[in-house]
Amino acid sequence: MLANSLSGLPSFLLYFCGAAALLLLFSFVYTRITPHNELPLIRKGNAAAATSYGSALLGYTLPLSSAVAHSVSFEDMLTWGAVAMVVQFAVLGITRVAVPGLFRDMEKGRLAPALLLASISLSAGIINAAAMTY
Q: In this structure, how many other beta carbons lie within 10 angstroms of the beta carbon of residue 122?
């Protein structure tokens, strides 16, 4: 019985590692396309940076998890994971244009713009995940 249960372990590891790699890629690119690197700001106690960055990760992880759950193959999961990434970066770009001074205010630790970006990132992630249930 245990052997039967563990027969899916190779697939689990493949999908888990693939999704983790996509999440790391998202994180890397996100911190490069924003005008500041969130991690040093977070280390200094900037709650605005932590809020926006953490929510961006969650906003991406929601559709990524949907891609893992609904994909028909590993390549399909990678493709939809990449689509989810493009959507999140587009949302970030649109928000940046719509809210001038967004990142400057977050660097100063102002929480309101970070909460707005967090809400937008999570909302886009939820819609993105739902759209991937085909």
A: 15
pLDDT in tens, 74-122: 999 999 999 999 999 999 999 999 999 999 999 999 999 999 999 999 9
Q: Which domain holds residue 48?
A: 2-131
Number of domains in the chain: 1
Crossing angle for the helix pair 74-98 and 111-131, to the nearest 10 degrees = 150
Number of CB atoms found within 10 A of residue 108's CB: 11
- Prediction pTM value: 0.92
Instruction: Work out the number of other CB atoms within 10 angstroms of the CB of residue 60.
Output: 28
In this structure, how many other beta carbons lie within 10 angstroms of the beta carbon of residue 105? 17
Place of tokens 């707005």: 116
